User: Fold this.
Amino acid sequence: MPSTVKGTLMIDGHELVISNPDKLLWPESGISKLIYLQRLGELAPYLIKHCRNRYLTTIRYPHGIDGKSFYQKNCPQPQPPFVNLAVQSGIHYVHLDSLPTLLWLGNLAALEFHASFDRIGEPLVPTEWVLDLDPSQEEEPRIMEAAMLVGRLLESLGIQSIPKTSGATGVQITVPLVPDLSFDELRRIGLFIGEYLSSTHPDLFTTQRLKKHRGDLIYVDYLQHYQGKTLSAPYTPRARAGAPVSTPLTWDEVRRSPRPADYHLLNISERLSRVGDLMEQTEPQQLRPILEFIGKR
Assistant:
């Protein structure tokens, strides 16, 4: 068997062993593990911010995106001393709170980072609300049109929101919250929004959760936003051809109907240096009046 090639990095005073730096993780894009770690380092201030204090699930691809993968919730072993844990329901999650921890996971070929909606050690009061627009087709040219309709509806209700590509085929609409509603209360609002969209645009939206019942419609997933569930974190790479990155957008950009694949590991740093973190540029919203309105119907 060929010997394993290794190198070391010193990151914030911690020595990190890098194995097989030339291994191609995204072969079509020529992205080796070493290039991936470099790009992760550039993403770190943004990705860590949106994973910190969340229970982290990673998806690992030891042989690159064309090989087998597996989800990982429990911390891989052996655990370096700089890796902190968060324990919930008997699972020892990695707490992604530092650059060394992020690069350690990257060296283990963790190519996707999915963060929980509930926060480590905090009350179960959501600090954001998310509607996940999930296409039923692998290629969905109407996804940005659908996102635009959701954004306009929320705006008509006085709600500011942030669209974000999933990095795969969908778009997620995030509303930062004044934290005073429960997950169940937000589900009631999500059901109201989903049913309204499905009734006013029946050729585009559905609230049918089972894919076999959706046809070619876009699923307004308001159920994913709940305690114990996760979603692709802002700025996570995705293990798909082209190395796409889950990227927040402006509504002006959505109007121009970009493709989710337009934002990827090889160009995301330039974008971030130009526009900053769009997730941080919307004030927390108060949704209790919407809940009260729904209760009066």
The radius of gyration is 20 Å. The chain has a mean pLDDT of 95. The chain is about 25% helix and 25% strand. Residues 197 and 205 are 6 Å apart (CA to CA).
